[in-house]
Design brief:
This protein is mainly beta. The protein has three helices and 18 strands. Strand 7 and strand 8 form a beta hairpin. Helix 1 crosses helix 3.
C-alpha cells in the first residue's frame, strides 16, 4: 500500500520518458511516479529505491528521493518562506513548500521566522502542517526531577500555564502558578524539571529553586527600582497581578527578593513604595 507522507522502499516497475514508476512489487496495481530529474543514474527496472510520497502542485501523488524535514505524525521546526491568502508556506526540503493553513496557526506567523509544526493529512487528502502539536508529542522522555532541559514554547494558556516541547518532541508544562515571566509562542527556553507526572509528561520551571533564584530576583527588582529613578511605585503589599505585570515575578518571589534587599540595607519600604537607600 502506498502511504502518503511517509518514506517507503519501492521497486522500479516501469520506465517512461518523464521518469519511472515505482510500486511495492513488479506486478503492483498501485504505482507512483518519480520524476526523471530525480531518477538515480543507472537505475534499472527491478531496482529498489527509498522514496517519500507527497502530492505535486496539481494534487497528484508523486515521490521524491529527497529527504523531507518531517514525515506524517512527526515534528520539526520549519521556516516560513511565504505568507499568502490561504495560509503560510514552509520550507521542508522538497520542491513544493508545505502549507500551514490559518486555522492551524496558534499565532499569526511571519515570513523568515521558524515554528514547531507537525505533519498531517487534511480532509481533502493533502499534506499540511499544524502548530497544534500537543497530540503529537511523546511522553517517554529520559528526564527526571531537577534535570535541566531545553524546549520551545508552542502554546500559552491563562488557565493551565505555558506548554513546552522539550527537545522539540516531549510533552511538558510550566504550570500557571510557576509561569512568572513573559512567554511567547516560539521562544526557546532553558528550564528545570520539577516533576514527572504519572502519564509521563513533564512539569517544568524556568526558575531555579527559591534559595538559588533569590539573588537573581533581588538584582532584577533593584534594576527596576533604579529605572524608576530610585523608587518603585508599589511595595510588597501590591497585588500579584501588578507584580507579575511589572516585573514578571510571582508575589512570593518578589517578597523574597525585597527581603534580601532589605537585609543588605539597599532599600527601604514606605507606605506606597520601595525606595533605594543612597
Amino acid at each position: 500500500m502506498l502511504e502518503l507522507g511517509k518514506k517507503q522502499t519501492l521497486q522500479i516497475v516501469k520506465k517512461v520518458e518523464f521518469g519511472v514508476y515505482l510500486g511495492e512489487s513488479q506486478d503492483a496495481q498501485e504505482k507512483v511516479l518519480l520524476p526523471k530529474k530525480e531518477v538515480p543514474e543507472g537505475a534499472r527496472i527491478g531496482d529498489s529505491l527509498e522514496v517519500f510520497l507527497y502530492k505535486d502542485s496539481m494534487d497528484r501523488l508523486i515521490c521524491t528521493v529527497r529527504e523531507p524535514a518531517l514525515q506524517l505524525g512527526g515534528l520539526a521546526v520549519l521556516q516560513v518562506v511565504e505568507v499568502s491568502k490561504v495560509g503560510a508556506f514552509l520550507d521542508w526540503g522538497l520542491e513544493k513548500d508545505l502549507l500551514l493553513p490559518f486555522k492551524q496557526q496558534t499565532k499569526r506567523v511571519r515570513e523568515g521566522e521558524s515554528y514547531l509544526v507537525a505533519l498531517y493529512i487534511d480532509k481533502s487528502g493533502r499534506l499540511c502542517a499544524t502548530m497544534n502539536v500537543y497530540e503529537y508529542l511523546r511522553t517517554d522522555s529520559p528526564y527526571q526531577k531537577d534535570d535541566r532541559v531545553t524546549g520551545v514554547i508552542y502554546e500559552t494558556s491563562g488557565e493551565f500555564g505555558v506548554f513546552v516541547a522539550v527537545d522539540y518532541q516531549y510533552s511538558a508544562l510550566i504550570p500557571r502558578q510557576d509561569a512568572a515571566g513573559h512567554y511567547q509562542i516560539g521562544d526557546v527556553i532553558r528550564a528545570r524539571v520539577t516533576g514527572v507526572r504519572d502519564d509521563g509528561k513533564l512539569n517544568l520551571s524556568a526558575r531555579e529553586k527559591a534559595y538559588l533564584q533569590m539573588d537573581e530576583d533581588a538584582e532584577q527588582v533593584m534594576k527596576a527600582i533604579e529605572q524608576c529613578s530610585g523608587e518603585l511605585p508599589f511595595n510588597d503589599k501590591a497585588s500579584p497581578e501588578t507584580i507579575k505585570r511589572e516585573l514578571g515575578l510571582s508575589k512570593n518571589a518578589f517578597k523574597r527578593a525585597v527581603g534580601r534587599l532589605l537585609k543588605e540595607g539597599r532599600v527601604e519600604i514606605t507606605e506606597r513604595a520601595i525606595r533605594k537607600i543612597k
